[in-house]
Amino acid sequence: MSVSAQQTEELKDIQAQIKQKQQQIKKQLAEAKQLQQQLKAAELNIARTVEKIENTRNELRNNQRQHKELVNQQKSLQSQVKQQQQALASQLKSMYMVGENDFAKMLFNLEDASKMERTFSYYRYLTEARKKQIDAFRNLVTELREVSEQLLAKQHELEILEKELTQQQVQLQQQQDLRQITLTKIEKQIDSEAAKIEQLQINEQALLKAIEEAERNAKQGPLNLTGLAGLKGKLLLPTQGKMRNMFGRIRQGQIRWKGVLFNGNTGAPVRAVHAGRVLYADWLRGFGLVTVLSHGDGYMSLYGHNQALLKKVGDTVQSGETIALVGQSGGQSSPNLYFEIRHKGTPINPSQWLKK
Question: Which of 167, 231, 263, 352 could form a disulfide with 241 if both were Cys (CB 3.0 to 4.6 A apart)?
């Protein structure tokens, strides 16, 4: 075989191998896409359960606060009832000591009408005062009984809420186990460098599409947001935890990081770095549960990998307000927050804009 013919055969073999590899990657990505849908469903279920747990915990806190107030009110009423009992007992004792015929004796011994009138007024005053004390005592007893009934009801509510919380936590663990199984399958499916790069490119396109949607929403929003100009180095940190400045670094192949990562604890609050309006709040492939805020004048901030989103599209938020909870959605192996700042769609280095 001539050199030229041999080279032609080798080229054909290489082309065949490339085609086979491309088909293999295509098949991997198709299967991974199905698994991504399963991951999305699992992470959305987790988010819903976490929101339920958060609501239940808030209800528990309110219930416990009300329970404490009722206990204090009950103690105060019990003390007042005891004081009234003692006062009435003292009056009854005095009446007994004086005797039932005292009024009649005084009446027959009176020598003039003016003394008689004063005596009548005196006894009428005593009778009215005693009646007021008895009425007050009855009211206190009634109020005490009502408070005691409310306490029993609150205790019952507390037991139900604690039971709900336990059930929700068991459900959350089951959902997290299912997510981990799906995540392991995805990692096995996307095992080659080429497939990983292709996957990241797909994720990047999904993010760009989401940002374009957010920009369209921004144009329809209010015009009273003034942007971030002049706030460089002054923005609040979006969450607690060590920041990893990945901005501009190679991620895989030619794909570079567009934001930074904050190491965090699951369920920790994610806060708005500045006042804004929610433009996007949904699950996004590769980024998990994402919230995008508009700050006006083309400035946006993006918060990804959340466990749950606490705000919906159209909500206005204040600087420092909690908008989400730190998580590891989007297939993350550990909890963190992915954070970006963009101006008119272009990523800018967040580390230069956040407070040190």
Answer: 263
Which position has the token pair 């297939």? Answer: 331
- In sequence order, the 6+-apart residues with CB closer than 8 A to the CB of 107 are 116, 119
d(CA 157, CA 60): 9
pLDDT in tens, 228-249: 988 999 999 999 999 998 888 8
The amino acid that residue 218 corresponds to is A
Q: Is 282 exposed, middle or buried (0-12, 13-18, 19+ CB in 10 A)?
A: middle
> Residue 165's CB: how many other CB atoms inside 10 A?
16
Between CA 141 and CA 75 the distance in angstroms is: 12
pLDDT tens profile 172-226: 788 777 777 777 776 666 655 556 666 677 777 777 778 777 777 766 665 678 8
> Closest Cα partner for 302 from 310, 294, 314?
294
SS3 of 288-309: the string is EEEEEEEEECCEEEEEEEEEEE
Residue 91 CB neighbour total at 10 angstroms = 15
Helix (H, G, I), strand (E, B) or coil at 311: coil
- Report d(CA 113, CA 105) in Å as an integer: 15
* Pairwise CA distance, residues 115 & 81, whole Å: 37
**Whether pTM exceeds 0.90:** no
Which residue is listed with tokens 């991504």?
36
Find out whether 244 and 257 touch, Cβ atoms under 8 Å.
Answer: no
What spatial distance separates the first Cα and last Cα of the chain, rounded to whole Å? 69
The answer to whether residues 262 and 241 touch, using CB atoms and an 8 Å cutoff, is: yes
Strand partners, 316: 277
